């Protein structure tokens, strides 16, 4: 008996082991191929939804949560670029630590049961410094980047092979049992390749090189219509429904569906309405697409000096479904989750056959996926930008709002309309943390400030003198944003330009990106470029003195160019001319070809002030404010709780900031967006473009800067700033990112929530449209209902008001159903609330808060 029992245990253990192995994904090799419809994994075509998360734009601490939120949002795949200049800052010296830990990131995605699309590039664009290229490439003799050039190809191949080998060694390709099902080589070269005479040969070489690395999974090239077989050419854009690959053996894939857009210092902040994204996604799957990727799903933060541009902001929020701080952005995240579920309900039919599209009238069409075995799914689209329609399809009538798609998993019942949102809306806010002086404060507190002046002009032993004006990137090799151009000129006292009323000006032409001009130690003028035009020219009145006059020009880069043909050769800095211009003929002095003294970087950088150590910090006498070129330091306690933290740099000009020695990026609240072009509410109907929907006009492009929680300790954190133009650090404050309210608004003619999908007509009628609320955190409950109205409520989340008709019962019914629970669902019907206005289509609108 005893032997039998232990045998049984053994059997149970083996059964358990088999079960366990089966549930842990990626233990067995997957065979990934493709055909004209889809990627084929282990012999099965797949409809896949993917989203971009760039690992260095968040911290390893944030990765698991971001990946979970992606999975919950309905993603199957996480896409990331590989950032060459992070991994190989010096040729042959690699860094895969911390935020650069690519292997860890890929493994975490795999452990969550998701696939990876690894876009190695190694040119990546991505609003990333120099498009991801290490600057040392630029200094290799004879190199021509992104072309059929031996020195470049050797480096590109070496790095690509290095990454592929690393992944192979860790068994991370699907062919080895890992999560990587796809890889990309190059990036949108087709957009600019006409400028490169050797483009065709280069692309052929890149394709062969990539294929020869034998990853066992397919390669793609995006925006490359001539991508050689077997590489799949894919589409990037706001819409890709009209795209077709370059062979009828390749599937229709969308590698970048821009979920919003990046922001630049000096520009307003773009956003993209979710109704339009949902429309674009549904249209793509409607017309035969089977793989699409949100660029970005989580945009994150350009920490340090990683942002490109020039002038890309430190935030890379992108209006993505997960915000910069890692909170889901609602209703964007939730509505797209519903769209993914709706599309997955059609997956079987979509993959079993090719789509058949017929017209439903002007600007309308129906696509049907129908198999002989009786599977049938359909998409009905109306791309008219104004007119809602009622269409007839298969003998039934359907309401089809303008710029929307109805999804019918059974070719009869609508599970989702892209313009009708069932998801909750959330208002996320930055809550200012009161200062320490406030006795009720439990938030962050800054203690006293100390400072160190940064000298104007040359202060380093490493300064050097050269005749003529030097290009900046060739000189700094991007070791620093800063470069001094200094010169002294002697005036004997008789020059016309010295005379009072002579109208003398200092004229400077620079390739960019920002410059400050000092004469005899005083800031006399400054200039800045913009994302659209990086060049700077200034002309400022000067007063010169008899004797020696010191001219110190501080030139700055604000992230190196990342896009365009030959972007790597654009250059920066004061290449001239530099003139002292007098009003009288012949009085102008051209300083361009004189002897200049140069210094790369600041003294404070040489002294490593960013770490906060050194004994040079002073705190007496009074704190200097509004003074250019000054380092500030303080210590602070972290805001209590676990909400994400930001520093509000209101009151400061431009500079860089570090928390406990970690660079949180460039700050520039003084750079404001112009006043025009913003819209209060953006009409999602009609083609989106990056300047269609803008916010923040007249305000700083970026005021708040993310400080990852994992960089903070409860108290004694060190904040160091380098301020370039002058500000008052006492105005700096902390904020935490919190969800303030949840809202939902559902009408009587909304489809049922996707989760309640059933093709049983009776059951659907019984259930009817339903309003659901859920607090974001599992340990929260709904504590109050701020607003509830059933009838014709007006306004949007945060500003709802009762309309002409409203039921008295709405508030008590909702309170009863929701208060004290994490989530609640209420049918939107007159059975629940009575009928306050017969014959009118009514809606239920609710605003609630969670604690
Ligand atoms: C694409 C590029 C991406 C990114 C995007 C804009 O053209 O492939 O890397 O730069 O534009 O955010």
Automatic annotation (TrEMBL):
Matching InterPro entries: BetaGal_gal-bd, Galactose-bd-like_sf, GH, GHD, Gly_Hdrlase_35_cat, Glyco_hydro_35_CS, Glycoside_Hdrlase_35, Lectin_gal-bd_dom
SUPFAM superfamilies: (Trans)glycosidases, Galactose-binding domain-like
Keyword list, A-Z: Glycosidase, Hydrolase, Signal
Family annotation (Pfam families): BetaGal_gal-bd, GHD, Glyco_hydro_35, SUEL_Lectin
Signal peptide: 1-29
Coiled-coil ranges per UniProt: none
Enzyme nomenclature, EC number: 3.2.1.23
Catalytic reaction annotation: Hydrolysis of terminal non-reducing beta-D-galactose residues in beta-D-galactosides
Any one biological process term the GO annotation gives: carbohydrate metabolic process
Taxonomic superkingdom: Eukaryota
Top-level enzyme category: hydrolase
Ranges for domain SUEL-type lectin: 765-851
GO molecular function annotations of the record: beta-galactosidase activity; carbohydrate binding
PANTHER family assigned: BETA-GALACTOSIDASE RELATED
Family assignment from sequence similarity: Belongs to the glycosyl hydrolase 35 family.
Name this protein carries in UniProt: Beta-galactosidase
Species name: Olea europaea subsp. europaea
């Amino acid at each position: 008996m005893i032997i039998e029992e232990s045998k049984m245990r053994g059997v149970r253990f083996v059964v358990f082991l088999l079960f366990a192995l089966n549930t842990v994904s990626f233990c067995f090799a997957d065979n990934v191929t493709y055909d004209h419809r889809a990627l084929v994994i282990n012999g099965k075509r797949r409809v896949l939804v993917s989203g971009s998360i760039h690992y260095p734009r968040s911290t390893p601490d944030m990765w698991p949560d971001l990946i979970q939120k992606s999975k919950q949002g309905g993603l199957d795949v996480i896409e990331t670029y590989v950032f060459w200049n992070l991994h190989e800052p010096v040729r042959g010296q690699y860094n895969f630590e911390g935020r650069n830990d690519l292997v860890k990131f890929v493994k975490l995605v795999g452990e969550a049961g998701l696939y990876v699309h690894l876009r190695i590039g190694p040119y990546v664009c991505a609003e990333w410094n120099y498009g991801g290229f290490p600057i040392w490439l630029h200094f290799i003799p004879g190199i021509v980047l992104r072309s059929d050039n031996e020195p470049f190809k050797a480096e590109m191949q070496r790095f690509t092979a290095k990454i592929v080998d690393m992944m192979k060694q860790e068994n991370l390709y699907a062919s080895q049992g890992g999560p990587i099902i796809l890889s990309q080589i190059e990036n949108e070269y087709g957009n600019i390749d006409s400028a490169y005479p050797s483009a065709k040969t280069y692309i052929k070489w890149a394709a062969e090189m990539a294929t020869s690395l034998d990853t066992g999974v397919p390669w793609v090239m995006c925006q490359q219509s001539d991508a050689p077989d077997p590489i799949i050419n894919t589409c990037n854009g706001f819409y890709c429904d009209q795209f077709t690959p370059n062979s009828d053996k390749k599937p229709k894939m969308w590698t970048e569906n821009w979920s919003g857009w990046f922001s630049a210092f000096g520009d307003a902040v773009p956003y993209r309405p979710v109704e339009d994204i949902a429309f674009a996604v549904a249209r793509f799957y409607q017309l035969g697409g089977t793989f699409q990727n949100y660029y970005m799903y989580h945009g994150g933060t350009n920490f340090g000096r990683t942002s490109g541009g020039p002038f890309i902001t430190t935030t890379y929020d992108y209006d993505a479904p997960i915000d910069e701080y890692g909170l889901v952005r609602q209703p964007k995240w939730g509505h797209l989750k519903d769209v993914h579920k709706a599309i997955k309900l059609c997956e079987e039919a979509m993959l079993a056959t090719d789509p058949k599209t017929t017209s439903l009238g002007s600007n309308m069409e129906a696509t049907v996926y129908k198999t002989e075995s009786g599977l049938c799914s359909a998409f009905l689209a109306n791309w008219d930008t104004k007119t809602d329609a009622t269409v007839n399809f298969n003998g039934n009538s359907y309401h089809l709002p303008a710029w929307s798609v109805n999804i019918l998993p059974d070719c009869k019942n609508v599970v989702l309309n892209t313009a009708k949102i069932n998801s909750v809306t959330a208002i996320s806010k930055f809550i200012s943390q009161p200062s320490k002086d406030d006795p009720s404060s439990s938030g962050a507190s800054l203690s006293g400030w100390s400072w160190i002046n940064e000298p104007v002009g040359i202060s380093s032993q490493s300064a050097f003198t050269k005749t003529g004006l030097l290009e900046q990137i060739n000189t700094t090799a991007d070791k620093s944003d800063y470069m001094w151009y200094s010169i002294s000129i002697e005036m004997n006292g008789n020059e016309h330009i010295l005379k009072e009323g002579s109208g003398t000006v200092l004229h400077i032409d620079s390739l960019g990106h920002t410059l400050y001009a000092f004469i005899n130690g005083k800031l006399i003028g400054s200039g800045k470029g913009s994302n659209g035009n990086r060049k700077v020219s200034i002309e400022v009145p000067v007063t010169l003195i008899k004797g020696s006059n010191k001219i110190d020009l501080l030139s700055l880069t604000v992230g190196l160019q990342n896009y365009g043909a030959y972007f790597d050769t654009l250059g920066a800095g004061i290449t001239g001319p530099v003139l002292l211009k007098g009003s009288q003929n012949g009085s102008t002095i051209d300083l361009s070809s004189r002897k200049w003294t140069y210094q790369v970087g600041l003294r404070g950088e040489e002294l490593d002030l960013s770490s906060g150590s050194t004994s040079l910090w002073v705190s007496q006498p009074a704190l200097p404010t509004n003074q250019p070129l000054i380092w500030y330091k303080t210590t602070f306690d972290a805001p209590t709780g676990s909400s994400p933290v930001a520093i509000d740099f209101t009151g400061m000009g431009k500079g860089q900031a570090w928390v406990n020695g970690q660079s949180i990026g460039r700050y520039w609240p003084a750079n404001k967006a112009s006043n025009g072009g913003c819209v209060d509410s953006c009409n999602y109907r009609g083609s989106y473009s990056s300047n269609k929907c803008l916010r923040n006009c007249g305000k700083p492009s970026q005021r708040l800067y993310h400080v990852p929680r994992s960089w903070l300790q409860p108290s004694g954190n060190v904040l160091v700033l380098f301020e370039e133009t002058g500000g008052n650090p006492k105005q700096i404050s902390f904020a935490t990112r919190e969800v303030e309210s949840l809202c939902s608004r559902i009408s009587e003619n909304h489809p049922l929530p996707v989760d309640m999908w059933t093709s049983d007509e009776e059951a659907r009628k019984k259930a009817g449209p339903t309003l659901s609320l859920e607090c974001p955190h599992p340990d929260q409950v709904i504590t109050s209902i701020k607003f509830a109205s059933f009838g014709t409520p007006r306004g949007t989340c945060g500003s709802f008001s009762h309309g002409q008709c409203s039921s008295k019962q709405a508030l008590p019914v909702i309170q009863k159903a929701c208060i004290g629970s994490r989530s609640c669902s209420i049918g939107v019907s007159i059975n629940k609330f009575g009928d306050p206005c017969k014959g009118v289509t009514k809606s239920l609108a609710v605003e609630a808060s969670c604690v």
